[in-house]
Write a structure and sequence with these properties.
The chain folds into 2 domains: 31 residues, no CATH class; 38 residues, no CATH class. It contains 4 helices and no strands.
Length: 86
């Protein structure tokens, strides 16, 4: 039960109306019957950059221009990266 409470506290923090302590009596116990814990062994990680490559060049240019207009450091870096890969 403590794990369920911890998960709700962490992942529902933005919704202050949903508190573990306010669940109807017996609700958590019923829900626990449908929850199964498991662990995974990770053998490798694989990343993929998704920068609108699957869109037409005109759209890619539009996205890069909008990122530049936003002006933040990260947005400018992404726009530059997109332009190198068009």
């Amino acid at each position: 039960m403590q794990y369920l409470e911890a998960l709700i506290t962490i992942h529902e923090a933005q919704d202050s109306s949903y508190q573990f302590q306010q669940l109807p009596e017996g609700y958590a116990e019923k829900m626990l019957k449908g929850i199964v814990g498991f662990s995974l062994k990770i053998d490798r990680l694989e990343g993929k950059a998704k920068l609108s490559q699957n869109h037409p060049k005109a759209r890619q240019e539009l996205v890069a221009d909008q990122l530049k207009k936003a002006g933040g450091e990260n947005q400018l870096a992404i726009a530059e990266w997109m332009e190198k890969n068009m």
